[in-house]
Design brief:
The structure is a single chain. This protein has six helices and 14 strands. The protein is globular. It has helices at residues 16-26, 45-50, 120-137, 172-184, 190-194, 212-215, and strands at 2-8, 30-34, 55-59, 67-71, 76-79, 91-95, 101-106, 143-148, 188-189, 204-205, 218-219, 222-226, 234-239, 255-259.
Length: 261
């Protein structure tokens, strides 16, 4: 079996302690990180290697963005796509020993205004999805796509559907755009495959909340998708919600999926 975890860590160096805690407690075979906020040359590899994660692929950037895949199993065929066409480090992909490809992505948040004319960042987000959709339509091997998608698509993926309809991450145009990406390869959303709607499911809670757990104003921004040919090998999927209360937490929590490959 192979377990794959994904986590927007919001600075891997600032939160290296809780990354180590996750690896010791959950021991995934592979960890995909987003928003690492570190250049490739200064990625903190020592801790990972000490715990047996010898294979490390990064696509980094100083103080911003950044993604990484750390693994106990060999990684080959490393790819780094620029889906925003602006040089930002938001994707890294590899092939696993099983022949499955694994793509780790940090999709732009998109700013605060859901209008590409008034907010160029929102337009860049939609265009990012457009390029990903073209890529997904041409896939020719079993693939796991994971990361921070920065869209909560379902009503039960947010704490209040009506209140967030005009809030970036849950607007109708973002949900529609994400749907086009999902349709391009008939992706299976493992979060909702294993934890069916309308059960509430969140992976992000704002730092602004005085007591995030009591208010529970969450959104499901982080996802793990697979091409349909991998569905028989997907054994379980869960969130690690206690991580939101660990020391100096990320505002996101990890996802962990077990596969039979």
């Amino acid at each position: 079996m192979t377990s794959i975890a994904s986590w927007n860590i919001n600075s891997v160096r600032a939160r290296i302690g809780i990354v180590e805690k996750l690896l010791r407690e959950e021991a995934p075979d592979i960890l995909c990180l987003q928003e690492t906020k570190v250049e490739c040359g200064t990625f903190p590899k020592e801790m990972f290697r000490a715990l047996g994660y010898e294979h490390i692929e990064t696509h980094g950037q100083r103080m911003h963005h950044g993604v990484a895949i750390v693994s106990k199993v060999p990684l080959t065929d490393v790819r780094k796509y620029d889906w925003q066409a602006n040089g930002e480090a938001r994707h890294v992909g590899v092939t696993l020993p099983s022949g499955v490809r694994l793509d780790n992505v940090y999709i732009p948040a998109g700013g605060d205004i859901a209008d590409r004319d008034l907010n160029p960042k929102f337009g860049q987000k939609l265009d990012f999805f457009g390029r990903m959709t073209e890529w997904a339509g041409a896939l020719d091997q079993p693939t796991v796509l994971t990361g921070d998608f920065n869209v909560a698509p379902l009503e039960s993926d947010v704490w209040n559907h009506k209140a967030l309809l005009d809030v970036v991450s849950h607007t109708p145009i973002e949900v529609e755009t994400l749907g086009k990406l999902q349709a391009a390869s008939n992706w299976v959303d493992l979060g909702r495959h294993f934890i069916a709607a309308p059960t509430p499911l969140y992976t992000w809670w704002s730092y602004r909340a005085k007591d995030w757990e009591a208010s529970n104003r969450g959104r499901r921004l982080d996802h793990m998708w697979i091409t349909p040919d991998l569905l028989p090998q997907a054994l379980s999927h869960r969130i690690v919600q206690p991580a939101r209360s660990w020391e100096r937490p990320s505002d996101h929590i990890p996802l962990v999926t077990e596969f039979a490959f």
